[in-house]
Amino acid sequence: MKRLEGKIALVTGSSRGIGQQIAIGLAREGCDVIIHGRKKENTNKTKELLTEYGVKVDVVEGDLTQEQVIKDIVSYITSTYGKLDILYNNAAIQGKQKPIWEFTKEDFEHEFENNFYPLVRLCQAFAPMMQERGYGRIINLSSGIKNEPNLSPYGTSKAMVDKFTEDLAAALNGSGVLVNALDPGWLKTDLGGPHAWHEVESVLPGAIELALYDNDGPNGQWISAQDFHSK
Questions:
Q1: Which among 81, 53, 70 is positioned nearest to 12, based on CA atoms?
Q2: Catalytic residue among 88, 135, 154, 213
Q3: Distance (Å, rounded) from C-alpha 174 to C-alpha 102?
Q4: Which one, of 112, 201, 108, lies nearest residue 164 by Cα?
């Protein structure tokens, strides 16, 4: 049984890595998927990987730090589909490591502009629509990073994600819209590097479980994808 048949999801940053795996996991459950990359051609591999699942696959493109790009994506999805059931805010960057006292205001702002503000804008656009329909799942990609002062802007941006997730969940409590933060684990991706603990495929099935919760499921929680491998 495909548990997400009839649903449609947007996965930001799904041209590769974690986002690509999430798109695959959703498609396996029968979910139609809107994949995203900075350029449409970057998503070709993901699109190819999803063909075997027989779901509808659409593509949106653009730099999410640009407000007009987000407006265009929201407008396209609402006019084409009239709804969005599931939102995975996955797109993120990680800056270069250096001693914590050498980071500038610009270093922090650059990561906030990529890792936090687009997530907020997309949540603000789609959450009210989900609330009106009485159903929605928003999954914000967090991180278990700690004791890494040489990556302070990245870690700080993810702490902001966690707090915003809690606040949004509180605002939507009881509405049928669940908002949770997902820690994918330290994965072997372009961002995580070759020495990470886990293969990128290990983000499944945990990452998809958050989209499968019933309306009375966890809300405003921080959940580790890797924990599902021990259950």
A1: 70
A2: 154
A3: 44
A4: 112
φ/ψ (deg, to 5) at 57: -125, 125
Q: Which of 16, 59, 44, 63 is nearest to 201 (CA)?
A: 16
Is 154 part of the annotated catalytic residue set?
yes
- The answer to whether residues 188 and 199 touch, using CB atoms and an 8 Å cutoff, is yes
Where are the domains positioned within the chain? 8-230
pTM: 0.94
Joined together, the tokens standing for residue 113 give: 């502009």
Cis peptide before 205 (omega within 30 of 0): yes
Q: Which two tokens stand for residue 209?
A: 């479980």
Whether the CB-CB separation of 5 and 213 falls below 8 Å is answered with no
Dihedral sign for Cα atoms in the order 183, 187, 193, 195: positive
Residues 124 and 74: beta-carbon distance below 8 Å: no
Tens digits of per-residue pLDDT, 7-59?
Answer: 999 999 999 999 999 999 999 999 999 999 999 999 999 999 999 999 999 99
Is 8-230 assigned to CATH 3.40.50.1260? no
